[in-house]
Design a protein that fits this description.
Number of domains: 2
CATH superfamily of the largest domain: Mur-like, catalytic domain
Number of strands: 17
CATH topology of the largest domain: UDP-N-acetylmuramoyl-L-alanine:D-glutamate ligase
CATH class of the largest domain: Alpha Beta
Largest sheet: 8 strands, mixed
CATH architecture of the largest domain: 3-Layer(aba) Sandwich
Length: 417
């Protein structure tokens, strides 16, 4: 009998490459498992940034309206089980093992990547648990991501920015085209912001999807600490700001509302339901503030647009005496661009070497920092960086942890959050 840890180790070694953007293999296994088409309705969410928060709002809104919802996200921060949830509860080890056994029995000689195993296991769990709606977060891109074996009833693209350029292309237009690949003919294509590249609109027009755009099909009107959501099908007044910090969170919540409204799901979204969701939805590692004499802020920001958003959010806070930055970034990211975006807000850098094959050393990160950066230490791991920050920081200082899920996850463990 394999444990969950055994299964996860096996999956890491199953396929010749960690990323293989080809739907043929995973679709074939899904068909043999009778997972396609799913019995439930599906919303698929893509985007460079904001898709995790959008998924969280969707999941909570459906559950508040009485729907049995399944949520698939990646990567995880602390436990693999975080990736697959039903009714807001993580799948248990035995449930995941049973799903992996079904995948393994169906795949025969077909090899699968780690993420392809994840996707099939999520669909298997959702089928067994008879969820009414499944919310799938794209792992990488969209068009060739394993989640795209499902013809989603609604597609959402939260934002487009430069990331994963080795796989998706080195221009906003190329990346937009890949992410818009989740849209389907005749079905809503919800856009999370108004500044989408032309390629997204070109895909929508070419396949005959139904664009749902902010500022045209739905509107956000902010006033003080409240905001309104307006569309031809639903109007909600005087909503509270989301509990998650960051100016972009209203846009993510509005995109989730638009997806439900224009997807014509059989739910009633009352102002009370929506307000409760906005006050209570929480996604760890997204501008997560931990108060104290020394405030800690944790954000998985791992690309330049996310780093710029993090910088802007920091500038809205009261000024700290000193800001220590614990920074760990994977080697396939724009280390120079990410650190340059945040450098004006950082007084002292503590660099951490991350685990895994895509990691680079703290020394390699140091080489790409701005010339005037003050580096306190190059730590062998995130826990060591956190310990040094804790012992070095004084009251009214701030510790910022950013750069990767692999940075924030160990920091949360260190802080016992």
């Amino acid at each position: 009998m394999r444990s969950l840890a055994d299964w996860l180790e096996l999956q890491q070694k199953s396929h010749a490459s960690a990323i293989d953007l080809d739907l043929t293999r995973v679709r074939g296994v899904a068909q043999r498992m009778n997972l396609l088409p799913p019995a439930c309705r599906v919303i698929t969410v893509a985007g460079t940034n904001g898709k995790g928060s959008t998924v969280a709002y969707l999941d909570a809104l459906f559950r508040a309206a009485g729907k049995r919802a399944g949520r698939f996200t990646s990567p995880h921060l602390m436990r693999y089980n975080e990736r697959i949830c039903v009714d807001g509860v993580e799948a248990g080890d035995q449930e995941l093992i049973a799903a992996f056994e079904q995948v393994d029995a169906a795949r025969g000689e077909t090899t699968l990547t780690f993420f392809e195993y994840n996707t099939l296991a999520a669909l298997e769990v959702f089928a067994k648990r008879a969820v009414e709606v499944a919310i799938l977060e794209v792992g990488l891109g969209g068009r060739l991501d394993a989640t795209n074996i499902v013809d989603a009833d609604v597609g959402v693209v939260s934002s487009i920015g430069l990331d994963h350029v080795d796989w998706l292309g080195d221009s906003i237009e190329q990346i937009g085209r890949e992410k818009a690949g989740i849209f389907r003919s005749g079905r809503p294509a919800v856009l999370g912001n108004a500044s989408m590249p032309a390629s997204v609109w070109q895909v929508i027009d070419a396949i005959g999807a139904r664009a749902v755009a902010p500022g045209r099909d739905y509107h956000i009107r902010a006033h003080g600490d409240r905001w309104d959501f307006d569309s031809e099908r639903l109007t909600l007044r005087d909503l509270p700001l989301p509990s998650m910090d960051g100016a972009h969170q209203v846009g993510n919540a509005a995109a989730a509302l638009a997806a439900i409204v224009y997807g014509e799901f059989d739910v009633t979204l009352t102002p009370e339901h929506v307000a409760r969701v906005l006050r209570n939805v929480y996604v760890p590692g997204r501008f997560q503030r931990i108060p104290g004499d020394v405030e800690w802020i944790l954000d998985v920001a791992h690309n330049v647009p996310a780093a710029e958003t993090l910088r802007d959010n920091l500038r809205r806070l009261p000024h700290a005496r000193r800001t220590f930055a614990i920074c760990g970034i994977l080697g396939d990211k724009d280390i120079r661009g990410i650190t340059a975006a945040l450098a004006p807000e950082v007084d002292v850098w503590i660099l951490a070497t991350l685990a895994g094959p895509r990691a680079v050393s703290a020394e390699q990160i140091a080489e790409q920092l701005p010339a005037n950066a003050s580096v306190l230490a190059r730590a062998a791991d995130v826990a060591g960086a956190c310990l040094l920050a804790r012992t070095s920081a004084r009251p009214r200082d701030r510790v910022l942890v950013f750069g990767s899920f692999l940075t924030v996850g160990p920091a949360l463990e260190f802080l016992a959050i």
